[in-house]
Amino acid sequence: MKKLLTAVGLSLTLAFPTAAETIQKSHPQVKDYSIAAMGCMILLDCYEGIEKISPDKDFGERFIVFKDEIKRILTALDKLGIGVYLGDERYFTRSTVGLYKPDYNRLFISKRLLEDPREFLGTLRHEGWHTVQDCMGGGIQTSFMAQVHQDSEIPAWLRKMVERTYSIAGMSRAVPWEVDANWAEEQSNVTADKLEMCAKGPLWEQITPTPMTKEWLIGCGWMKPQDGLYPYNPNKKKEYCAPGKY
User: Coil, strand or helix: which one is 54?
Assistant: First the structure.
């Protein structure tokens, strides 16, 4: 649709230059702090108060301590073609301060976190890790996200905390991905390291996937069975294996 609208706009400009100059994209009216507002931001239909940031962005003196890690993460995301945006607090639900959408390869962080550099970095690590999961799930050209940490690497206390939080919110299905990202959030430079590996090539060729992820990758034909331990079983949802967003 975006390409279609661009073509129509160009045609109007060529045919009616005076009238076309007055045509402006109207900003959608959505309720603040709502799912609709968040969706409007994700699609970039809402644009007021949303800023795309580059690896060279100056966050000010309060961010000096975290400057190097933030730049590493933003640089790696930029190399991967991931758009990173700061959005007004009103575009997020009350319980959300950041998100990554694999369908669009876009990452958003609430401007509210600019008041708390440590929380900003933690959220950037967390959402950046979801990009790492996207890399592990077949590459960012698909939309499947896979757990990266082995279960044994994740502390039991963190798993219990995430399970409780997401169960209360009615989102138990998200626990494997969220506990994975929450552990990355607690570790310095781990997200940056893995994003840089993503930019070099298939992540599953550089670190060992979890057993379930390995089964998925073999089922899609991205990994070859080794020693007969992982026989080829085609994935039931073959369309998820193909490049493109579903």
Answer: coil
